[in-house]
Design goal:
By secondary structure, the protein is of the alpha/beta class. The protein has a single domain, classed as Rossmann fold (3-Layer(aba) Sandwich). The chain has nine helices and five strands; from the N terminus they run H-E-H-E-H-H-E-H-H-E-H-H-E-H. Helix 4 runs parallel beside helix 6, helix 5 packs antiparallel against helix 6 and helix 5 packs across helix 8. The longest helix has 25 residues. It is globular and about 45 Å long. It binds P1-(5'-adenosyl)P5-(5'-thymidyl)pentaphosphate. The site of P1-(5'-adenosyl)P5-(5'-thymidyl)pentaphosphate (T5A) has 25 residues, from helix 2, helix 5, helix 7 and helix 9. P1-(5'-adenosyl)P5-(5'-thymidyl)pentaphosphate binds next to helix 2, helix 5, helix 7 and helix 9.
């Protein structure tokens, strides 16, 4: 069991008796690393290679999850959640997404490419807010119902550069930073360090990609990792 609450990846023997289950790949990392960009590119590239994949995002991805997203990001309830409520709201969005989308799609044999998953709670609410990792593990475990990623890709980026990209996008779109993006730099630094710590702890599941490079280069590195970890499925 790892600190995101995952029971661990299926052993080769387990994979052999469940050949039709799709693969589950998660993108993680600090703000502005390009998770949405790369997750959507990967879905498209898998499609070009004959593999049907669906994109999910967190918080969100279901009607309930999208309603929770607005509560979390833009104080949709008219007041910000306290830190404890914040953890549980992220977990509630995830619980719904796992049962309504991720698990059913995997069971149909589709791949699921997730734009954030349980490691985000470990990084943001564990390392960032300072909640105990044991508490986060228990909450994650309850939310995810044993659904563990086959591969997690952390798009690692200097915190200031990631936030600069987001500010640039907000200027272009005429939008403003959301509640978490407005947190101070030390908060975002703790999150980045937390992700790198998770990668050190779980090298089998988590790989780190330097997201400061051009997005075409990042996409190639992501594709190489996917082939490395899920290669037999791609060539099947
Ligand atoms: N959160 C989430 C928690 O605190 N706990 C949790 O459990 C969960 C699930 C989600 C927020 O909630 C927090 C984390 C977040 O603060 P969100 O809007 O979904 O909010 O935010 P993010 O997931 O961080 O997504 P962002 O859209 O903000 O960033 P991405 O997805 O990393 O980056 P992307 O692809 O949107 O790109 C950002 C900008 O950079 C450009 C893009 O064109 C875009 O303008 N870009 C690049 N520029 C240069 N070089 C590259 N390689 C580039 N790649 C992308």
């Amino acid at each position: 069991m790892d600190s995101a609450g995952y029971p661990g990846r299926a052993s080769p023997a387990e994979s052999e008796v469940m050949p039709s289950r799709g693969r589950f790949i998660t993108f993680e990392g600090p703000e502005g690393g390009g998770k949405t960009t790369q997750a959507q590119r990967l879905v498209a590239r898998l499609g070009e290679n004959g593999i049907a994949a669906v994109y999910t995002r967190e918080p969100g991805g279901t009607k309930l999850g999208e309603a929770i997203r607005s509560l979390l990001q833009f104080d949709g309830a008219g007041e910000p959640p306290c830190p404890e409520a914040e953890v549980l709201l992220f977990a509630a969005s995830r619980a719904q997404l796992v049962r309504k989308v991720i698990l059913p799609q995997l069971e149909k044999g589709l791949w699921v490419i997730a734009d954030r998953f349980a490691d985000s709670t470990t990084a943001y609410q564990g390392f960032g807010r300072g909640f105990s990792l044991d508490d986060i593990l228990r909450i994650n475990r309850f939310a995810i119902d044993g659904v563990a990623p086959d591969l997690t890709i952390i798009l690692d980026i200097d915190v200031k550069e990631g936030l600069r990209r987001l500010k640039e996008r907000h200027i272009l779109n005429g939008t403003g930073l959301d509640r978490l993006e407005r947190e101070d730099l030390p908060f975002h630094e703790r999150i980045r360090e937390g992700y790198l710590e998770l990668a050190r702890l779980y090298p089998e599941r988590i790989r780190v990609v330097d997201a400061s490079k051009h997005s075409d280069i990042v996409a190639e590195e992501v594709w190489a990792l996917v082939q490395d970890v899920c290669g037999p499925s791609i060539s099947a």
